[in-house]
Amino acid sequence: MTTTFTDETRERAREIIARYPADRSRSALLPLLHLVQAEEGYVSPAGVTFCAEVLGLNKAQVGAVATFYTMYKRKPTGDFLVSVCTNTMCNVLGGQEVYDTLVEHLGVGHDETTADGTITLEHAECLAACDYGPVMTVNYDFFDGVDPSTAVGVVDELRGGGRPMPTRGARLCTLKEMAVQLAGFADERDGAVADGGPGEPTLRGLRLAQEHNVSVPGFDPNTPIRSKAEADKAAAEAKAKAEAAKPAPVEASAAPVKGGDGASAPTPGNAGAGEPAPAAAASGSTAPDVKAPDDKSPQVRTAETRQPDAGTAVPDAPGTKVPTDSTASEPRDARSAEAAGVAANEPAGDGKPAGDEAGAQERNLTEAKAGTDADGAGPADASETGAQK
Known about the structure:
Blueprint: H1 7-18, H2 29-40, H3 45-55, H4 59-66, E1 80-85, H5 88-92, H6 95-106, E2 112-113, E3 119-124, E4 136-138, E5 141-143, H7 148-159, H8 175-182, H9 200-211, H10 228-245, E6 257-258, E7 264-265, H11 279-283, H12 298-306, H13 333-344, H14 358-375, H15 379-388
Parallel strand pairs: 1-3
Antiparallel strand pairs: 1-4, 2-3, 4-5, 6-7
Helix pairs in contact: 1-2, 2-3, 2-8, 3-4, 6-7, 14-15
């Protein structure tokens, strides 16, 4: 069944897309998915097609996003989505008992909807309200400190047409009405916006900080929040001040430096023709020059790093030791052990397979001979049979 979206939905889709730069219209996908869910109650295949068409995407790209986020429902959902937290904190406080009671009372399980289409039940991993547990939400509005009886009372009121007041926030709305808000449009219903105060557990930390005089050093609650232009200007001034505070670079002296024998030492400015300037004058370092390694593949460089004292070690590889002369370093203990092991295990000769014992060979010959006597096979056949065994 193909859904034809209303003109209002299409107009809102154009408004959502216009919020983003022309070359970044794909960023409008998330609110557009909420928009189609606001009309159908879930993201249907028609909704995926609609989003793909207005954004110039393919359906696979839209479907990948719609299936990633749990707030996008992929099958028809009730007017009220009841989510019960069963994660660690709420579970310890009784969240699982709340969920199990609702399952039995409503006759539905996780991600299932009641027959009257009113309530869809789900268990949530975390609702980010651990200090109010156990908690459940109805269309993402909180009901704090619930127990099995209060949870049943909430769903019964919803099924009876009522709108119980959440613990924090405005009065409830349907899932479709909530999706309109998530798409970025204001809710024009009376009482849709309310000034709900913070709960006692949230204020507990602030009160303890005030009681013990704990605050951020230098914090002034009356400090005004600067605009972006003011913040950018302050950052530019701080950068200019830091640049001005940097010491001026020291220029090289034009006078030649006398060497130990009274001769003028070469400097970067007066080095003779074809004579390179000393590395110490260029970089200020007194370390001996080390020839840069040739370009090598990562595999070769890794192998040389693992064998740092080989004659071909890369000077700049981590953990390497540059040889002081052209000869390779002495073998390490591991190489000595390996050489000793090779010497103790000489290659097997043609007459005796490696690892075989004399007794095993005699048994093979005896079995081969017995097989020859029983089957009448010739010496060649017996030898072949013995070799196979």
